[in-house]
């Protein structure tokens, strides 16, 4: 439960977005200084990132744990999980590391136990459980495991053998099946053969609901979400009771629980293309009654007896009867509203702001980034379709208005500000934003980021572009503009990158033989002391590597830099 009237808020600066904390009047109490900042938790602690490392602060802004970890997960039962040198460990609320070793993964604590796994040199993972002191109370000997629920957990002992254990690791019941799901309301989903139908057994192993579902989720509030579709392309989700009777008939593209005895049920937006997503209604899980039309793109779980919903144009609250609440804020745009402390947090069109319960805006992010006394960047929004959203930069302060207009038109083009039919159902979603990567003298380097997701795909494709803009001439500099005409910069830079790939273990992910040399117009960006060359996902490394980037200090390639050229002078001659 949130119990502190401090709220994370970020402002855009020439050094990127900086996060701090405001009070319920919108005033900064902890000044923006962090790369990222999470909400204060019930223990009065908040997790923050600074200089690419994570730490923990209290409500006065003092560090309880100085930034030192690669990642920190939220506290659960007085413990948090941290990433250290690629492995997971457990800390207490004072930052003391409790685990003696690092694990490949640790799940958040439940019932005084945390599921943990280790992976051997052959890539095989084994699972066990840690107690609140970070000790292996149950050794990592299982093929898999689920988090504890009500003092019990399901583990896989070996092929075709699962078991229900208590908090000491004692086996209560064993099940000779190839798959047994997590515990829910005393029932377990199971398969008699892999790839076969699902049914449910009780904790003693008695078959309670026959094998007749293509998928089956753990029971909650006396209800189980099941799918009866024989086709992997289409879904037929329904909701059953503990006797296997359908409370909600199996005909929906999606179902998920909302709390307050309510569920979101979804019909495919395009019946022949269910992967395009769903339009949702709210149903009563006790009676099966459908309380609303299928009009919502998003429905959040209930909190304080209200759920946040979004249609194509607005976001607002509805009560447990499915009726809109006109006494709470109604906001233009798509996203989610949620209660936090005394305020309402709005994540709308990928922007965070805060309102009071009357709908007055308490705080919103800045839309103007001052570069200096002359130049500013205005953030503009382009949302021609519910699935297409771009925030793009427009520069103000250039002396020549025609040049400024040309620059801004070019930035709109690079940001993919294009007309899209408002009524058309796209087969993809596109989001874009920007930040200031570097600014000095009259050189502005922007970072334009975007994410294009084709509905139904395993993942989307990110993109990034770094325009290098001379705010005096309006020139957009290219890589070749940095170097002398006869420098053969392609070979020089390629040799440096090849050396880094061969000698720096940080680049061990690069596909063997994938890199030969850069292109003449290779993507790049600069800062005050170095050139950065980068590659697109999949180009020389796996998707998870993101954009492989190579830092080349200017002092290593100074001999080929055109120090008298306009590009170099743009950030090395502040006149």
Automatic annotation (TrEMBL):
Coiled-coil segments on the chain, per record: none
Domain DUF3298 positions: 480-554
Protein name: WG repeat-containing protein
């Amino acid at each position: 439960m949130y119990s502190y009237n401090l709220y994370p808020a970020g402002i855009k600066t020439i050094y990127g977005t900086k996060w701090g904390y405001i009070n319920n009047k919108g005033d900064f109490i902890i000044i923006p200084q962090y790369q990222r900042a999470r909400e204060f938790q019930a223990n009065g602690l908040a997790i923050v990132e600074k200089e690419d490392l994570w730490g923990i602060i209290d409500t006065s802004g003092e560090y309880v744990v100085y930034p030192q970890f690669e990642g920190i997960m939220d506290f659960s039962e007085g413990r948090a999980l941290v990433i250290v040198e690629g492995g997971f460990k457990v800390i207490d609320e004072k930052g003391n590391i409790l685990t003696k070793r690092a694990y490949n993964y640790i799940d958040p604590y439940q019932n005084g136990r945390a599921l943990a796994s280790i992976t051997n040199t052959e890539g095989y993972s084994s699972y066990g459980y840690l107690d609140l002191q970070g000790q292996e109370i149950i050794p990592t000997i299982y093929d898999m495991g689920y988090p504890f629920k009500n003092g019990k957990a399901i583990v896989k002992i070996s092929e075709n053998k699962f078991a229900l254990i208590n908090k000491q690791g004692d086996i209560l019941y064993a099940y000779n099946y190839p798959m047994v799901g997590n515990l829910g309301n005393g029932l377990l989903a199971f398969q008699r053969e892999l790839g076969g139908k699902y049914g449910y057994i009780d904790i003693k192993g008695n078959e309670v609901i026959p094998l007749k579902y293509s998928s089956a989720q753990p029971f909650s509030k006396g209800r189980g979400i099941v799918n009866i579709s024989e086709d992997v392309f289409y879904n037929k989700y329904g909701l059953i009771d503990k006797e296997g009777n359908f409370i909600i008939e199996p005909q929906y593209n999606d179902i998920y629980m909302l709390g307050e005895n309510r569920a979101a049920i979804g019909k495919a937006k395009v019946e022949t293309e269910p992967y395009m997503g769903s339009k949702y209604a709210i149903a009563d899980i006790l009676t099966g009654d459908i309380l609303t039309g299928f009009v919502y793109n998003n429905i959040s779980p209930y909190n304080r007896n209200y759920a946040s919903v979004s249609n194509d144009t607005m976001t607002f609250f509805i009560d447990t009867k499915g009726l809109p609440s006109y006494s709470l804020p109604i906001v233009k745009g798509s996203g989610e509203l949620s209660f936090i402390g005394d305020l309402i947090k709005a994540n709308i069109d990928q922007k965070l702001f805060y309102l009071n319960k009357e709908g007055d805006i308490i705080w919103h992010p800045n839309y103007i980034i001052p570069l200096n006394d002359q130049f500013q960047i205005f953030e503009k929004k382009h949302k021609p379709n519910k699935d297409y959203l771009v925030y793009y930069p427009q520069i103000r302060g250039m002396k020549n208005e025609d040049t400024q207009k040309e620059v801004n038109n070019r930035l709109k083009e690079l940001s993919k500000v294009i007309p899209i039919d408002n009524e058309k159902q796209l087969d993809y979603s596109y989001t874009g934003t920007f930040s200031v990567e570097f600014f000095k003298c009259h050189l502005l380097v922007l970072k334009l980021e975007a994410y294009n997701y084709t509905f139904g795909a395993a993942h989307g494709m990110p993109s990034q572009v770094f325009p290098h803009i001379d705010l005096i001439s309006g020139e957009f500099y290219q890589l070749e503009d940095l170097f002398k005409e006869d420098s053969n910069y392609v070979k020089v830079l390629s040799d440096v990158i090849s050396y880094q790939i061969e000698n720096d273990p940080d680049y061990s992910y690069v596909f063997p033989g994938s890199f030969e040399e850069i292109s003449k117009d290779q993507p790049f960006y600069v800062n005050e002391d170095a050139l950065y060359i980068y590659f697109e996902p999949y180009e020389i490394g796996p998707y998870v590597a993101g954009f492989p980037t190579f830092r080349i200090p200017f002092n290593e390639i100074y001999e080929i830099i055109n120090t008298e050229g306009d590009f170099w002078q743009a950030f090395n001659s502040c006149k």
